[in-house]
Amino acid sequence: MCHVIVTCRSMLWTLLSIVVAFAELIAFMSADWLIGKAKPSSPEEVDNRTGGSQEPYRPTLGIYGRCTRISHMQFSRRDTLCGPYAENFSEIASGFWQATAIFLAMGIMILCTVAFVSVFTMCVQSIMKKSIFNVCGLLQGIAGLFLILGLILYPAGWGCQKAINYCGPYASAYKLGDCSLGWAFYTAIGGTVLTFICAVFSAQAEIATSSDKVQEEIEEGKNLICLL
């Protein structure tokens, strides 16, 4: 018989697992890893209201995507164009970024799998006498290691030609040059920290769902068990 067991700690772990997976996925897909050096407006880019030039803009560069501004001369307006600059894996700008993409993708795949499984832990707490919480916690720890490797390798690619085009001639491995780090990089770091927190907290979720109080309610014949 399936017993639906909901505790404060298990629900918190489930929600945090889902948030971490989505945060890492969004960061990976974003082009806002590097914010390039400011580029001056071209003569045709004139503000119709003030007659002056628009503010300089800063293009952004991701692991495999980028955002830049294109001008429509006849309409004197600007559009921001975002999309992948690499049509396939081999066209990613740096070998280090290729390695970063592999490690991050592996970590995110594991996190998304755990997030999917975590939803069902309310009904199923063990498989083959192994606690799902402990197995998921172990997988989250492994995913965290993959994410760390990816984030360590990413700055080593700042010396590639693509990064130099965005960050100026002084950009090199682990040196930003004229660039600054975007929100996607910080989100990936924050998600990595939360991944390890999830891995540790999974043990608390397992303890909460196998406590004596839960066993007492199961023995009383309750199918829905909610505990703080």
TrEMBL record:
CC annotations in GO: membrane
Annotated keywords: Fertilization, Membrane, Transmembrane, Transmembrane helix
Main localization (coarse): membrane
Membrane topology: Multi-pass membrane protein
Annotated TM spans: 12-35, 96-120, 132-154, 183-203
An annotated GO BP: single fertilization
Location in the cell: Membrane
Entries under PANTHER family matching the protein: LHFPL TETRASPAN SUBFAMILY MEMBER 2 PROTEIN, LIPOMA HMGIC FUSION PARTNER-LIKE PROTEIN
Family membership noted in the UniProt record: Belongs to the LHFP family.
Name of the protein in its database record: LHPL2 protein
Gene (UniProt): Lhfpl2
